[in-house]
Amino acid sequence: MTTHTTLSAPPAPAAPSRRSHPEGGSKLERRRQRWGWLFVTPFLVVFALFLVFPLFYAFGMSLFTSTLATGTRFTGFDNYAKAFTDPLFLEGLGRVAAYALVMIPAQLIVALAAALVLDTLATRLSRLSRLLIFAPYAIPVVIGALMWSFLYSPRFGPSATLFDVVGLPAPDFLAADSVFGSLVNIVTWQWSGYYMVVIYAALRSIDPAVYEAARIDGANGWQTATRIKVPMISSSMVMVITFALIGTLQFFTEPVVLRNIAQGAIDAAYTPNMYAYSLAFSYSQFNYASAIAFSLGILVFAGSYVFLFLTRKQSGLK
Amino acid sequence: MKSKLLAASGVVAVAAAALTGCSTGPAEASCTNEILQPDATQVSVWAWYPAFEQVVDLFNETHDEVQICWTNAGQGNDEYTKFSTAVESGSGAPDVIMLESEVLSSFSIRDALVDLTEFGANDVKGDYTEGAWKDVSSGDAVYAIPVDGGPMGMLYRKDILDQYGIAVPTTWDEFAAAAQALKDAGAPGVLADFPTNGRAYNQALFAQAGSVPFAYDNAEPTSIGIDVNDDGSKQVLSYWDDLVKKGLVATDDAFTADYNTKLVDGSYAIYVAAAWGPGYLGGLSDADTDAEWKAAPVPQWDAANPVQINWGGSTFAVTSQAKDKEAAAVVAKEVFGTEEAWKIGIEEAALFPLWKPILESDYFRDLEYPFFGGQQINKDVFLEAAGGYTGFTFSPFQNYAYDQLTEQLYAMVQGEKSSDQALDDLQASLEAYATEQGFTIE
What we know:
The complex is a heterodimer of chains A (318) and B (442). Chain A has helices spanning 27-62, 78-84, 87-120, 124-138, 141-152, 159-166, 179-204, 208-216, 221-232, 234-249, 253-259, 272-281, 286-310, 312-315; strands at residues 64-66, 72-74. By secondary structure, chain A is mainly alpha-helical. Chain A has 2 domains: 14-51, no CATH class; 82-315, MetI-like fold (Orthogonal Bundle), CATH 1.10.3720.10. Chain A has a two-stranded antiparallel sheet with strand order 1-2. In chain A, strand 1 and strand 2 (72-74) form a beta hairpin. In chain A, helix 3 (87-120) packs across helix 7. The longest helix of chain A is centred in the first third of the chain and has 36 residues, at 27-62. Chain B has 442 residues and is α/β, with parallel strands linked by helices. Chain B has 2 domains: 25-149 and 312-372, Periplasmic binding protein-like II (D-Maltodextrin-Binding Protein, domain 2, 3-Layer(aba) Sandwich), CATH 3.40.190.10; 151-310 and 384-441, 3-Layer(aba) Sandwich (D-Maltodextrin-Binding Protein, domain 2), CATH 3.40.190.10. Helices cover 41% and strands 15% of the residues of chain B. In chain B, strands 1, 2, 3, 6, 11, 12 and 13 form a 7-stranded mixed sheet that branches. A 3-stranded mixed sheet of chain B has the order 8-9-14, covered by helices on one side. The radius of gyration of chain B is 24 Å and the shape is globular. The chains are: A mainly alpha (318), B alpha/beta (442).
């Protein structure tokens, strides 16, 4: 038996070994697997403790109903029926769907445009720009939202002075009809950089010979970008859109932070996640809150599944 | 081999550093203050009073068998969220907790608080005003010991009112006229703010016109009376709606950074405040250096029949998770039960005492407040306000009720509905919620 190890590919547990042993792999393979399990165990413990177990517990809770006046009793899926007919939950869902329709294209267009431009240039400035566009993602979400809340504030923000220069009255960024745009702005600012990095990495992996062939065929920059680059990175785009979709449907942090200064424009049930949070921690309705959270989870799962199914050709999942 | 050893020792070092974060001390929670008698019974307390550590130290020095272990678990809703979760999970709650009187029934209905009548609460009943005691009682049960109150008065900027020649209003009609006069004189600010998220503040304004929004008794925990769209509330709300529509008052959200700045830079000439308002004002920075604040009684609807109102005020309750309820009750009764403790509370924390021996003392009545240029605000304003307060009943879902109130008021100031409609909608939504929660509506 040789003891060579191939450095290019780690031994996959399912890959057949030429020296396979009836008990599942050579002695060497089993030893390596044991080390693998050893390293994964801490993560598994934390994962089970903080994700899997609470999930089951919350699901169990959602099957009961507890009202303030009467006690707790088992009601099966009544909470889910209530959730899907709850006007506040449905309104919140409509709202995050509207956000998804606006925010995802906005983030994607910015990210795609930036990645394409930075891919074409190779100057020092492009490296610096990459860093600057990515920097907002490095800021914790809460801090970013807090910063923006001060920028939007009619008193502390620069809008009053800036608009004075042009001679127009400063708009109220936190009024009921403008808070949508304000939130879209914050999220686009924060996440476009992250998506740009993903798309840029995908662009970098395209073989430059393709560009040469395109140039020979007479394609200009724009045609190269739209007809060659974008289709070739479509699997990354699908992944990016899926992440964005999941994140937007669970929109929570920015509205909660902005709610501190715009309590009228953003109410307690502004998004379904906020509704679940208020139900649990402001109104002490833990069971119904679990049902709302699971209902949202089911919808997000369904939404992502449908999206991935519709784009299976582009994403390469077929 | 060497690099493996190095890597292994590195991992061990990191793990050791991380694990030092785990405490290996006794099971008792870590206290912010120092325990002077380690053998005595320790009672854990959650409170957010300013300068409370001094009061805790005072208690620990004077009590040998009971020691307080204090932590600041957050202010207001932050603390209530943690407490609510601890109640739901059955562990993690402190022995004694500071609760504002408005949330007492929200927690007593979940059996989270101990009825203190078995632990000698009635022994100290005589030390508190009638209104204060009513706020902590429900029927025959007493769920907390009162600490401080928020009798309301009117704090005004004398320099601004003098500058524009406006007399200090004593009735709400005069208040409206003053607001108009201030605007006509071209002042950059407004007379006052009407916050849609005022919550207890807005409720107090309604109460002044005779509104009794909730009828609830813990002895009959499943029935509740809701009357938020009565004539008194409608009168008050249409008054403020009128001022908002004429642009005579601002509609900024209260307790935000913007609001704090406007309070102290003269954008609001009048701050209708509770007795803890001066402490709050004094703590804000960037104040107008030539601001001259004075206190006056809150405006009345009928000058011949003044009605006093209250905003806020806190209590100490014993939780049902307390291990030694007897000791916890002792703490609740005695931590703010001495003159010395109250001197700290008044001078360092700007609290308004509900404990009669100090409330009715000459020291408190004649106390001069430097923030008001030496005015004796207790004698002038707040003592009468506190004396005339007869208590208030809150609902067991007060947090929800306040959120709904904020939503309706916001819709009203945005012009989406009239003030009467806002209150009617509030009544409907609260009734629907109460029915859904299994209450029978009286």
